Amino acid sequence: MKKLLFCLMAMMSVMTITAQSVYDYSVKDDAGKDVSLADYKGKVLLIVNTATKCGFTPQYKELEALYEKYRKQGLEILDFPCNQFGEQAPGTIAEIHKFCTANFDIKFPQFDKIDVNGANAHPLYTYLKSQREFGGFDLNDKIGKLLDDMFRKQDANYDKTPDIKWNFTKFLVSRDGRIINRYEPTAKNESIEADIEMELNPVLSAIMGRRSVRKYLDKVVEHEKLEIITRAGINAPSAVNRQQWQIRVVEDQKLMAEYRNMFMGAPNIICVCTPKNETEYNAGLMSENIMIAAQSMGLGTVCLGGPVRAINADEKYKPLLDRLDIPDNYKLSYIIAIGYPAEQPKAKPRDASKVKFIK
Question: How many whole angstroms separate alpha carbon 192 and alpha carbon 68?
Fold first, then answer.
């Protein structure tokens, strides 16, 4: 029996590791019926573990306000009651739902009670925690400081594990299933709402979702998509509209096969050339347009500097330069690898302190 249980746990672990997005999971609704989260593809999701007897329970009102404000734009809030924190979610799911509708008039879907930590944690939450670790309580918040002190007394290193720490922890999921952010229960509603607005806006979502991709599927990008992406590129601004760039899109797979290792294994590259002895700023703006457009079409990109330096400096790459047919008064400035991503890199921290508002 122990051997069978070990095998089952190992299988669940493998399933969680190999999952690519929240859409790989199914959950039970408040009637006990299986619901595939793939049904929510194309929606922005806010997934939250809740409790009806918690000091944070009034957040139901804030959640419902968000839902009413943004549901028509594509927001769904998925509520998973959990009784693991101070046994503050007692009763059946039917009783919990009755309480929430009577007291907060919630209209977003509630699902069956689950565990979010431990051996019986729902695989969805195992996956969510693997994508976004504990972010820390807001120590400037009175309750956040209280929670930190409480957990620190129990375990000095409690903040080093990704476990859910308390009720009303939230995960924001993009329209294509990426885990965008994790919010501890002390997170300010204004911050969560700002992130939701950015995800609901397709332009901002593409900007925020772009990552440098260094692993690609063995699938060539369709010519039609490359045309659209480069058209978006050349619509970037340039000084006095001089459009100081030349673009070379390599689709020749024999040529790519010869040099692919230089380009992270990408099936295609976009080479951006600029006039010699002139600024590259304009081409930089154009390149950013290309990468954002690619992101919006489900493609990955990475801007490569090393290969550019090697190609420009080493005579052995002259055959490649000849194929690119770059005008004599231009130089190769940027190479953008592009293809269907075989990875979903996590966002790296951005330093908001570098932004100063002069009022």
Answer: 15
pLDDT tens profile 61-111? 999 999 999 999 999 999 999 999 999 999 999 999 999 999 999 999 999
Burial 223-237 (b: 16+ CB within 10 A, else e): eebbeebbebbeebe
Q: Is residue 55 a part of any domain in this protein? A: yes
Does residue 134 lie in a domain region? yes
Which residues are annotated as catalytic?
Answer: 54
Last residue of a domain, one of 178, 209, 240: 209
Task: For residues 78 and 165, state if they share a domain.
Answer: yes
Task: Report the domain count for the chain.
Answer: 2
Same domain, 331 and 260: yes
Query: 284 is written with which tokens?
Result: 């930089």
Closest-CA residue to 44 (of 66, 21, 80, 76): 76
Q: Is 304 helix (H, G, I), strand (E, B) or coil?
A: strand
Q: Are strands 246-250 and 268-275 parallel, antiparallel or unpaired?
A: antiparallel
Residues 180 and 250 in one domain: no
Segments of the chain scoring below 50 in pLDDT: 1-19
> Is residue 67 a contact partner of residue 45, using CB atoms and an 8 Å limit?
no
DSSP state of 184: -
Q: How far apart are CA 198 and CA 251, in angstroms?
A: 34
Rounded to two decimals, what is the model's pTM?
Answer: 0.79
Residues sharing a CB contact under 8 Å with residue 328, sequence separation 6 or more, in sequence order? none
Q: What pLDDT is stored for residue 1 in this prediction?
A: 46
For 304, the token pair is 């490569």
Pair of tokens at residue 46: 């806010």
